[in-house]
Design a protein that fits this description.
The chain is of the alpha+beta class. It contains 5 helices and 5 strands.
């Protein structure tokens, strides 16, 4: 391959890196981003949920996902009338009548919870790993000016899909410690 072909190939691979990373960021924000932002408390409190009952929630396959609570949500601003809402992955098994300040995302209420941080952190990690590995492979192609061998990148992707749970678990544990202290 001539010099012009390598320069062109490097440019295409470099643009590919930017596009892949941009797509990863966009999908992260689109899919689990709003829930993670609500769980971590970004932005002002949206309202208060007066708890009616709490129960052990499960996903579509029947696996336990933590404690969910139902209650009456009263918006802080005049965004609408009070309505029933689900407090997703609650920090505690709240007693009926307890009032919990929440942030909302996609029709559900969220509070700071180690379980929720672990859950959404894992989803974000599982979403990002393939994109980051693809971007690393494209970067290697751009650096060498030719199609790079991808065997090492496949192993990194597989390891990354397993290892992604470690930082999510650490973040969840740190949130639980934070909640115990403060």
């Amino acid at each position: 391959m001539g010099r012009g072909g390598r320069v062109w190939g490097r440019g295409v691979a470099g643009v590919g890196v930017v596009v892949v990373l941009g797509l990863a960021a966009w999908l992260t924000w689109l899919l689990p981003g709003p829930q993670m932002g609500a769980v971590l408390g970004f932005g002002p409190v949206d309202g208060v949920v007066s708890i009616q009952e709490c129960y052990e929630a499960s996903d579509a396959e029947g696996y336990a996902t933590g404690t969910d609570c139902t209650g009456r949500y009263t918006p802080r601003r005049s965004d609408g009338p009070p309505r029933d809402i689900v407090l997703d992955t609650a920090a505690d098994d709240h007693r009926p009548g307890t009032r919990v300040e929440v942030r909302t995302a996609r029709g559900r209420a969220y509070e700071l919870s180690g379980g929720a941080v672990f859950r959404f952190g894992s989803v974000i990690g599982l979403l990002l790993v393939p994109f980051l590995v693809l971007a690393a492979w494209l970067f290697a192609c751009a650096r060498h000016g030719r199609v790079a061998d991808g065997e090492g990148h496949v192993l990194v992707a597989l390891a990354g899909l397993v290892v992604v749970f470690v930082p999510a678990a650490v973040a969840g544990i740190l949130v639980e410690i934070w909640m115990l202290i403060f």
